[in-house]
Design a protein that fits this description.
The protein is α+β, with helices and mostly antiparallel strands and 139 residues long. It folds into two domains: 1-98, no CATH class; 101-139. The protein has helices at 56-97, 101-138; strands at 8-13, 16-23, 32-40, 45-48. A four-stranded antiparallel beta sheet has the order 1-2-3-4, with helices on one face.
Length: 139
């Protein structure tokens, strides 16, 4: 195990993390994790654990982690969308070349509704962006 452990450990959970201070400076030379805060990424809230007061160093480390985590989650969202596009292409190929009539009957309505919903949202958002750009050009 590495001798240079981080000062903080973030146990990721949905919407954030539990924050622990890493302690290796004890008599048993064991790694101890002391919970110091709960973090909510969605609303930016940092709650000290119990009656604890967070130091400036704690606050900085937590806010840095929150910024890094938010960026990572945004990257994952875009990666998921690119994967969805790949899956749509693979689905098209499957439907065209390998799917049986029974398989197509089982998925066609659900897939058409999902695609219609997605198309509606994408067209509306594209129109909004175009209108916004046109208003900027007029200014």
């Amino acid at each position: 195990m590495s001798v240079d452990l981080p000062d903080y450990y973030f146990r990721v959970r949905e919407n954030g993390a539990f924050v622990f201070r890493v302690d290796t400076e004890n008599r048993q030379r064991r790694i101890e994790l002391e919970q110091i805060a709960n973090v909510n990424i969605k609303n930016g809230e940092i709650k000290p654990h119990g009656d604890r007061k967070l130091s400036d160093e704690d606050q900085i480390a937590i806010r840095d982690w929150m910024a890094d985590r938010t960026a990572l989650l945004a990257e994952r969202d875009i990666d998921d969308i690119h994967r969805a596009i790949d899956h749509m292409n693979l689905t098209t190929h499957w439907a065209n070349s390998r799917a049986t009539d029974d398989q197509l009957e089982g998925i066609t309505d659900a897939l058409l509704l999902a695609m219609h919903d997605l198309r509606t949202v994408l067209v509306r958002k594209k129109a909004d962006r175009l209108m916004k750009a046109a208003r900027k050009d007029d200014d």
